[in-house]
Each structure stands twice: as C-alpha cells, then as structure tokens.
Design goal:
Rossmann fold; 381 residues; globular; 18 helices; alpha/beta; 2 domains
Length: 381
C-alpha cells in the first residue's frame, strides 16, 4: 500500500512514526510520503515538509503567515495528487488537515483520520466536515469514540499511542544518578518544565514557569527542550536564571522529576502516565478576553487537560488564562514537591488513569484496523 500521512507537530510526528513502524511490520509493500518530523523520517519514505516549517499557533500567527499557509496547502495538494496514495492518513492538526480532507474527498481519495481533532471540546459543528470528508475515524480516547458514534461517523477505537511511546522509551530503567551525570546536571531533585513545542506556546508560558526557580532553590528546574528547537533558542528566556535544558529526552526527564509544570495537550497525559505530579498552566494571547471567549463560547468540556477529561474530575490543577496566578502556581507546586496529601491523592488518581487507559499495543492495533478497512474499502481480498 502507498500511504500519504500528514502530521503537523511534535506529538503527531511521534505517533505517526509508531504507526509507520507498525505498518511496515504488517504490510511488506508499505510505501510512505509524508509531512511530519524527524521521527517519521527515521521510518523511511519521503519527508515533504517538516512540521517546524508549518506550525502556527493562534489567530494572530495565522494572520501573520497567511501567504506561507496558502503555499503549503498548494504544495500539499499538488504533491498528494502526484503521489496517488491508496489512502491519505491525517494525524490531528485540524486546521490544515480538515481542509486537506475536503480536497482529497473532492479528488476521490480515501481519507482516514487518526488522532481526532478536539472538536468535542470546541466548535463541534466541525463534525459535519468530518462526516462529509473522512471515510473512517480511528480514535485514541473512549469519550471521543462515543462522541463520533452519536454523530453517526464511521469510527473505531484502537487505544492510545502514548502508551506505546512510553513503553518503548529510551533509558526506561535508568537511575537518577546516571541521568544527571549523562546530562551534566547537578544532584538536586528535578522539576520538569514542559512549555510546549511551538514558539507561541513557549513565549507565553515559559517565562512564568521560570519565575518559580527562585522560589524553590533546593530543586533544579530543567526545561524539556522541544524537538524542533535548538538549545540555543532558549537562551533569551534563561539568561541569568539557574535552569538547565535537556533536549529530546522528555520521558527520561519526567521519570526522574519530582514534579512538572506542563502546558495543556498530550504532554499532560504523558506526564501522568509517567507518574510525575504536575500543574497544568496554559496561557494564550488575549488575557481575560480570550478566557471569556474560551469558557463561555468555544470550549464545550469542563477541563482542558486530558488527564482530567479521562478521569472526569480535576485530578490535576488547571491554571488557564484568568485563573492563572503566580501565587496559585507556587502553592500547588510546593504541595506536590512535599510529601503532602495532595501529592498522594494525585498519584492515586494516576493509578485509576492507568486502569482506564489500558496497556500498550495501540499502534499495532491501529495499523491492523486500518489495513482491514483498506482491504474492505478498496475491495481487496
């Protein structure tokens, strides 16, 4: 089979690469052409455009980059038609991928969507676009599957790929001493800072995270460097601040950290599955105005973190927009670093999260389900 895959950010690159690996094990004739990142590139095939050259965050970034966005769409459309894949597989990245789904459907290409856009959280009307332009959805969260079933979308649940990525992580059994020595860190217990993978996220969230460094001098704060960022790109943020940067080792850092400050998204789930207590802190442009629009008009779910959505309660504290203050952040982080009831309760909630999520094997299941669906959709016996 010939697969054309589009992933637009670091998490998509990770999960698409695991899916590609599973395809190669189940389809000896698998060929790939894709938009993604370095992890997908390691699986072979042809990388058309790296996600670091395409990712934008928020309305302002979109407006400032309209010309390049249009050029990327045109490039992708032309490349897709020239390649003529058996299936177009879209991985999250809703703004770009929903438009590509429409284009592909108009050109009689089969479209599968893996890792659903968060339409259940905001702008639920987009489910109509999915129903019209996506042949099959492959979901990674139980509540997503239920949502699409209720809207009569062809959907299959295949488990969550984060479990695979964590199970296959490097240095799984590494000791704390080995980790700090290998990365030239000091011996203080660690606080991990996961400030996002995009420039906009980092610029809005990292500075306030770094304000905690002086509040907890007995801990070494370590930034989990985003895959698309060079260490030097953090220099403007960390000048004269006692903080380290470790790139390409987010899981290793989390498994050695006492606690973490995390932006919203998949990172909150990864942090929880690695049993690292966390504070979710996420700020966007617009301050109070964006907070009002988000909570009153756009966001249709009670929480912004996957941990809380899956557990159906606020297991981890969410400091979003107007609710974010340095005082709240300092207080919660202090409780999580200590041997407090708050820390114990969160770790107990993580146990329930593990139970609900199940075990690894998602990527292999998804590849198998997609291949079965492909043979059915293309009438291949």
């Amino acid at each position: 089979m010939r697969y054309y895959i589009i992933a637009g950010e670091a998490s998509g690159d990770l999960h698409a690469s695991n899916l590609m690996k599973a395809f190669k094990e189940q389809d000896v004739e698998a060929e790939f052409r894709y938009w993604g990142g370095d992890l997908m590139k390691e699986q072979g095939g042809t990388l058309v455009r790296h996600y670091k050259d395409t990712a934008v965050m928020g309305l302002w970034d979109v407006l400032m980059n309209l010309n390049s966005i249009k050029k990327n769409f045109k490039l992708c459309q032309d490349d897709l038609l020239a390649y003529k894949p058996d299936v177009l597989i879209l991985v999250d990245y809703a703004g770009f991928n929903l438009r590509m789904a429409k284009f592909a459907t108009e050109n009689n290409l089969l479209v599968y969507y893996y890792i659903s856009p968060k339409i259940w959280a905001w702008n639920q009307k987009r489910v109509k676009k999915i129903k019209a332009n996506v042949n099959r959805m492959f979901t990674i969260l139980p509540f997503e599957t239920k949502f699409f079933e209720e809207h009569n979308v062809e959907v299959q649940y295949s488990g969550n790929p984060v479990l695979d990525a964590i199970d296959n992580r490097s240095n799984k059994g590494e000791s704390f001493d080995s980790f700090v020595e290998r990365n030239q860190l000091d011996k203080r217990p660690k606080v991990a800072l996961l400030a996002g993978s995009r420039k906009g996220e980092i610029s809005l969230n990292l500075p306030d995270m770094l304000r905690m460094v002086d509040k907890f001098p007995d801990y070494q704060f370590v930034i989990a460097g985003a895959p698309s960022f060079a260490v030097e790109e953090y220099d403007s943020y960390i000048k004269d601040i006692d903080v380290a940067v470790v790139s390409g080792q987010t899981y290793e850092l989390l498994q050695q950290s006492r606690a973490a400050l995390v932006t919203s998204g998949t990172a909150t789930l990864e942090t929880a599955l690695l049993n690292c207590p966390q504070v979710v802190c996420y700020q966007m442009w617009g301050g109070g105005f964006t907070d009002f629009i988000a909570k009153k008009i756009l966001i249709k779910v009670p929480f912004i973190s996957l941990v809380n959505l899956i557990l159906e309660k606020e297991a981890v504290l969410e400091l979003f927009q107007k609710s974010f203050t340095l005082e709240k952040l300092e207080n919660e982080l202090g409780l999580l670093l200590a041997d407090s009831d708050r820390r114990a309760d969160m770790l107990n909630d993580y146990e329930e999260l593990h139970r609900r999520m199940g075990g690894p094997g998602s990527s292999a299941r998804t590849a198998r389900l997609m291949l079965e669906s492909l043979r059915k959709d293309k009438n291949i016996k």
